[in-house]
Amino acid sequence: GLCKSIGVSNFLISHLEQLKEDCVITPHVNQVEYHPFQRPQELVDYCRSRDIVFEGYCPLAKGEALTHPAIIQLAKKYGRTPAQICIRWSIQNGIVTIPKSTKAERIEENCKVFDFTIAEDDVEILNGMHDGRHVSWDPTCIV
Questions:
Q1: Please, which pLDDT band fits residue 142 given cuts at 50, 70 and 90?
Q2: Which residues is 57 bridged to in the sheet?
Q3: Which of 32, 39, 141 is nearest to 90 (CA)?
Q4: Domains of the chain
Q5: How far apart are CA 127 and CA 118, in angstroms?
Q6: NADP-dependent oxidoreductase domain: from which residue to which, for each copy (predicted)?
């Protein structure tokens, strides 16, 4: 009776279903790895259908996305950095996005993603990069 809201991390649909059976409180947020190589759309859709905010961490795939040729090409096309492309893509997919950095200039750069939009065909290019790879099993990637 003390808990009014909860958040969970890395819960799959099966975990959320089990939680529903064991608890009366639905989580308000599920924090899960989300980047162009790891886009768990079925889980995103499940969370949305149950009013659970899907929050994506590690949007740069621990730096792996920053050197991908297609992301670099899109960054040049939009006059942005690869990091900004990944963050903007995540936001355009309706994901609450939490990039991590300790450098002030990168934090500032990561915030400059609200004054442009990635065209739908370019969003689809990024969506198509999903290969299911996880890069964040290192707990330092999670904020």
A1: very low
A2: 33, 98
A3: 39
A4: 7-128 (3.20.20.100)
A5: 12
A6: 1-127
